[in-house]
Amino acid sequence: MKPAADLWESLDKLDIAISFLKSVGSDPDSSLSDFITNTLKIDNPFSSPKAQQSSRCKHTMSLWMTLALERAKEIAKNNRKAFEGISENFKKNLTEEQRKVIFEFINSLPIEQIDTLVEVIFECIVFKVDVPQDDEEEELFSKVSFHDTLIGYMDTCPYEEDKQLDETLKEVIDLIPSDDQFGVVTCQSVEFWHLVQKINLDKQKRKH
């Protein structure tokens, strides 16, 4: 894992690159590292040599998402809250009963599936939940089943056209309580991510 300072610095540079790419554009297959170094005049875009060599402009959002997820995991590992900029409407607490039900089904999954779920929930919060809306729309959206919000996100992933909702992932998402007293709603999405990631981390520690 990258040191925290490197993560924050790389994300800051990517934020600048994304802003410029939106306004001036670039050949999708050109080197992202060269674009940041030569066009934006920012030295040492990434601490990872592999990222420096292999990343293309068309990979910018995917790389940003990878680093942002890593940063959120780092924040959560230190018992702090990720998603600091998101509306409080999506940070409602889970009940103790919900937490028990969620723990049961998440803890029964293989680590690889939990990892994928952590990633997908994070992406959904960033790209679908944390989208500016007027108060009325936000209030209505916050009451939607998070299972449905997640499926809706996977059907319209905004930065990876070839991203597929495979059958295994759908089966895992379908385990998220949605239509009873334990149902997770979108207003609880941030707390849900934190709980799933905590279970993930604890399970990885036990494995080692």
Automatic annotation (TrEMBL):
Protein species of origin: Mytilus galloprovincialis
PANTHER family: E3 UBIQUITIN-PROTEIN LIGASE RNF213 (PTHR22605:SF16), RZ-TYPE DOMAIN-CONTAINING PROTEIN (PTHR22605)
Source organism phylogeny: Eukaryota, Metazoa, Spiralia, Lophotrochozoa, Mollusca
Protein name (database record): Uncharacterized protein
MF-aspect GO terms: ATP hydrolysis activity; ubiquitin-protein transferase activity
